[in-house]
Amino acid sequence: MNTLLFRGGTSRLHRANPLTKLAGLLWAVTAAFALPWQGAIALAIVFAVWGGVSGVGREFPRRLVIFLGPLTLALILIHAILMHHPDSRALGPLAFSWEGMMHAVKIVARLAAVVASSYLFVATTHPSDLLKAMDARGFPPAMSYLIASPLLLTEMFAMRTHTIRDAQRARGLAIDGSFWTRLRALPPLLFPVVTIGLVEADQRAASLTARGFRATPKRTIVDPPADSAAGIWLRRALVLAAIAQVGVGIWR
Amino acid sequence: MRFETRTLTLIGLGVVINIVAGQISSWLRLPIFLDSIGTILVAVLDGAMAGGATGLIANLVWGIIASPVEAAFAPVAIVIGLVAGVFARIGWYRQVWQVVVAGTAMAAGLTLVAIPIQILVFGGATGAGSDLAVAYFVHVGRTLASSVGVTVLLSNIADKIISALIVWSVIRRMPNRLSSTYPMLKYNRA
Asked: What is the CB neighbour count within 10 angstroms for residue A246?
């Protein structure tokens, strides 16, 4: 079961340092809110094209449509048709407002930029590379563990849940039928997963402690993602620009 | 703040339980999310801060594996963990009615945090079926904030009460060998 949105590749963006990409994502998200809606749309288009160039573009239109399609319809319904604005004009039993429509367009444009930039990040950055980059830059091991462990455990637990479901069904557990029948099936499916997980969490903690998980905060990483002085300065500039954009947003 | 190593492994487990419980809910075609059970469990076993951290990490991880936009709702997940932890600390996971009140408080707390996020970031909609409820409330003359608030509260209250009841049931059935290693449980077990 491949649970990640990551798509492998050898593009320049795939090879870029994950922390620099993360700083770029921070900049893009804040820019989406600081820019006028035309700028946000331009940003979304730039990221979509960049995704295409980097070999992860095929997913872009599908993801944008799945997320933005229903949202756009709902926003137009709420803001342009149902909410009252000074310029609302009668449209049969309802009303229509260009002011409300433009508000909906502004929100959709921002979200398109946010979704496109964040998808570009997760599609070109494998979590293990991000964790290596964090370790290489001296981030606390606890932070890396908190992000890594669920990603590593999810697949194992999903498979275990399948096994428990099959075993319980073999013992006669009904998972179809009325709402109450289905609700009653929840504890026999969930409780074994939780209990086994709690026992293992104890064992895992003991194992980490025994290995001196936190003994050396600055660990040497095998095969760390490439980094450079220019990359470090670029990250600083992007974070500062993001802070400035948040300031602009609040000031406006 | 610095979590103990055991708390870190527990937080990791809580995130995974959130994901797996959501998967079981979809198998059973239940009209509830159940994606906060792990957050509530960690809060009851290890305190409010651990619960809040579980909520935060769960949304960030969900952003990586499913939908990057989930990260925007991380503050909502943090509040669920914090409220669950506060109720655990005052020993409100002993009786069913106390657990129901705790679940209701979680739904109320997350609603307060979800309203500004849903309005300022998403314009009041999320692209889910609950948008129709928001549209209906707006149509009958409610403000956008109250429409979003009522919809979020209604769509979460049963979910959080059932999730809290499941956690209550888990800690009641937990073998002593396991429960004795969680000092927080002394507030909620006789």
From this structure: 15
